Amino acid sequence: MQQKNRLQTIVGLWTLILFLWSGILSAAPQLIHFWNKSNESNRAMIDHSAWQTLLDRYLDAKHPSGINRFDYANLKANDKRQLKGYLNSLMKRDPRTYSKAEQKAYWINLYNALTVHLIVNRYPVKSIKKIGWFGPWDKKLVTIKGQKLSLNNIEHGILRPIWRDNRIHYAVNCASLGCPNLAEKAYTAANTEKLLEAGAKAYVNHRRGVQFKNGKLLVSSIYHWYKVDFGGRGLIRHLLRYADADLAKRLRDYRGSIEHDYDWRLNKF
């Protein structure tokens, strides 16, 4: 009886943990007002060439699985220093003094570079979720203009509420197989729109984004966690915007429930 009670307690605790963690992920964006400023007259561009060099060297964007893989294990010492230097260079800037378009690219690149930095510093790790009790997303990782920021701050306090663009979810990468691809190009004000559209189309038409399994529509948990961004049942309209012809036909004809899943294994080589 005692063993049964202990088992029930453990199951109950894990259920509570999963519920709370899911709630954190699915929370509505909460704007950090400090960052909601820009200088649209500033035509200056932020240099992301150091990040591009690292992507060129360590990202496999032609993996047969259709999922871009990063070679965390073989990052050389000088490239680790380059990654750290790139992050330091971003932290020294005040993004509010740039245009909104330049800022959008700045925050996406910062998020992705921070994620790679986290994994590299703790490699080998099987999943980003293994870093910390509930993952590293609430850990303060950078300080910019005196403001300490976490990955969650960047995504849910800056990117989502300022731009209100659900394609942000196709841009920020969580180092997981279930995640939309880490883009092979560094984001810039000039290419952000193109990269967001390409990322959305690639993900929707890959089985980890959308697939039919045993007659059921199975989508990435991203669409479940962020219903507030994708519109709940309106998700189908979003998917149809990017779906190839065969998938689009099945989506239009589908009347069943929508299930979701996610693969948290590391997107390593």
UniProtKB/TrEMBL annotation:
InterPro entries: DUF547. Pfam families: DUF547. Residues 96-204 form the DUF547 domain. This is DUF547 domain-containing protein.
